[in-house]
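Morning. Coffee machine broken again, so started the prediction first thing and wrote up yesterday's gels while waiting. Chain of 240 residues, entered below exactly as on the submission form.
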Amino acid sequence: MSDPEHGPDDVSSVHADSPAARSAAHSRIVAIGQIALFDVGGPIIAYYLLKGSGLSTVAALVASGTLPAAGAGIALATKRRIDALGAVVLVGIMVGAIAGLATGSAHLVLLDGTVPTFVFGAACVGSLWTARPLIYRFALEAMGPGSPKGRDFAGHWRYPGFRHAFRVITAVRGLAFIAEAAVQVVIIENAPAGVAKTTANLMPVGFAAVLVAWNVAYGKRSQRRGELAARAAASPDARP
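Came back before lunch.
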């Protein structure tokens, strides 16, 4: 993460062929593979296979929903802990499955994915009125608050531009998640179960791609503004 006011963080660069770089690349590939298997492609394929084998729509939806739950379980076993978003996802899956099986409504099963999306978006927006926005907290937690990188990252909070950037990022992501949930509800209510199931798994990928692209562009723009401000402050004409 770059400091919006003071340029890139003072973190030593890692050579692309170093063990650390290879390990990071391997971790990213594994993470992408897990998302594709447990959250995107796997559940869609499982739904159509189960539906084709004679299961009812509700039963096929509930059974295919076990894959995201399994993915969350693997993450829990790997990290030895579960984050708040993972807990919300698991609760949403269980509530949707129970409600769907009890009522026979495919809509209730499909709505399980919109619940954590909406809750996370609302939590992001609500955190703007707290001392630290949610995306900043997640970023710090991912780095490790007690690690050198985490301490350096936390130290940047004293810069107004850094604080502003994370509040903007949190607001944009929160509103995007709320919009995603709203669009998915409209699709669930108006499209066949198979179409709604497919979009429920593919739509988050599209939203995530757009958010990542925006985040990168916003980060670069903020960094340029910070560098210009730093040069202006260092200019002899700006000194009293």
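Confidence is low (pLDDT under 50) at residues 1-14. Going to sketch it on the whiteboard this afternoon.
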